Amino acid sequence: MWNAILTALVGLTSTTAVAAAGPPAVLTAPGPEGELSGTLIAPGQGKPVVLIIPGSGPFDRDGNSPIGVRTDAYRLLAEALAGRDIGSLRIDKRGMFASKHAVADGNAVVIADYVADTAEWVAAARTATGAPCIWLLGHSEGGIVALAAGQALEGLCGLVLVAAPGRPFATILREQLAANPANASVMPEAEAAIAALEAGERIDVSAFHPALQRLFAPPVQGYLIDLMTQDPAAMAAATGLPVLILRGTEDLQVTKADADALAQANSAFAYREIEGMNHVLKLVPEGDLAANRASYADPSLPIASELVRAVADFVTLEKEAAE
């Protein structure tokens, strides 16, 4: 394969080089009640296209949230991939931001709804770019959507799971809450709430600590109940697509146990740890909790270059292998 590629490149002039990725442009797709909206960067000729599926909560297509997170992580990732001539599509979730008219209530959602939207995005991206298939890059909870979509959709090249959970959400949530000593006084309430939601039961949080009232707010309880039924490792084991698993060594939200659970689901998966990368894809000093947290509100920080390299190399080489 490599000899053929090198032979084909001999004698090419700058006028016959592969076209670069295009400028950002708005792309829409059908939603249940109105349009879904995203930003497409078309790929260079014959290059892959990556659909970036965002993490949990009200995160927009750029990786920012009105609840105090400003990273520009998805925009920076898309732009960095464009520097490798790789196309991307980053999106606003149904019911939020420019996709707010797709449904009346963006909180009234389950994973299957996001999979349905992913199907529309894959179709729209293939039509807009002519790509025969689309890569799904699921970040954080978006990794669960990518895994579910990988079992249900046609037209996929493979999956890239970045900072994705590998164990049930209830297990991870318990660990995250217990890891902070300041939560000791509210852990009994939190444990009771998690147990009820695991059993498929809604709960009355009116007497809970204010922080737990927000975490287990009634409008999102249906989503939490559905999320707690998902088993990422089991979904990974059932995936027949090429898969790359990436986790940063400074990730405070998804542990090595999660990445290991995904990697162990199938020995064919590629797995790599990115030194110094945290959950929002930024490089931070080792063990510096303050700097790690501060990065969640600093869009000027670049994303980890090793992340970009790993994603670009994987989707490009897998595409060449498929050909």
Question: Shape from CA axes?
Answer: globular
Q: What Rg do the Cα atoms give?
A: 20 Å
The proportion of residues in beta strands is: 15-25%
Helix content: 25-40%
Walk across the major sheet and give the strand order: 1-2-6-3-7-8-9-10
How many angstroms separate the termini? 9 Å
Write structural notes for this entry:
The protein is of the alpha/beta class and 323 residues long. 39% of the residues lie in helices and 16% in strands. The protein is built from twelve helices and ten strands. The chain has helices at 2-9, 73-82, 111-129, 142-152, 169-178, 187-198, 210-215, 218-227, 232-237, 256-264, 289-294, 305-322; strands at residues 24-30, 35-41, 49-53, 64-65, 69-70, 87-91, 134-139, 156-162, 243-248, 270-274. The strands form two sheets. Strands 1-2-6-3-7-8-9-10 form an eight-stranded mixed sheet, sandwiched between helices. β1 (24-30) and β2 form a beta hairpin. The longest helix is centred in the middle third of the chain and has 19 residues, at 111-129. The protein starts with a helix and ends with a helix.
